[in-house]
Amino acid sequence: MDGKPRVEDLLGAVPITVAELRGAVGRFEGDTAAMVRASIATAERAFAELDACDGVIDAAGVRGEEVARRLRELLAREAREEVAAELAALDEIAEEVRRSSATLRLLNQVLGRETVVEDDIPAAKVPVLHEAQLPKVPSVYGDEAEYADLLGVAGRGEELAPRRELAHRERLSAVAAHLVALVQEVAKTGFADAGFAHASLREAYAAHALWLRCLEQRRRDLGR
Prior knowledge:
By secondary structure, the chain is mostly helical.
């Protein structure tokens, strides 16, 4: 015995017939052993690629959680450019997972493994935040006659300043919390649910735009 597996042993390890194997791998001019070795090598490469795809999805979840953590800090610091960069990073993560998921589906089909079709999965709902849901900022303009002149408006502005500042702070806080929560939820799935990931990122960009509007409204009202 030279330690090499016999053809019979190789055939016993492959749960398909020689005819099926030829059809899957191709003709080897009667070299059954070569055919079996090729099929095994192909399967090994396929399973290695499956592991790699799973690794991308697992890593995407961790990367998404890191983005959420950084976003929380950046939103608190009102770092506009850095927040936009983190959203772009989320797009890259989602695209990497999309490509890996497509490869995963193809390999599972080649290997004859059952997979769940995304269309058969109920779509996960993504929470949406509208500006109308945010706290209202008290207006310096009243209907009363005493506020009809500029002095009256200025006096009301001073009177309402603490409440207006609180309202702006609460609005920014609510939008920031919503944006971070969106990223945290999609990170939990590893971005593997393409529909949920797409809807989450779309809402994340909408929340980002709302956050920028809130910053501009505060600047306009409070001068900062």
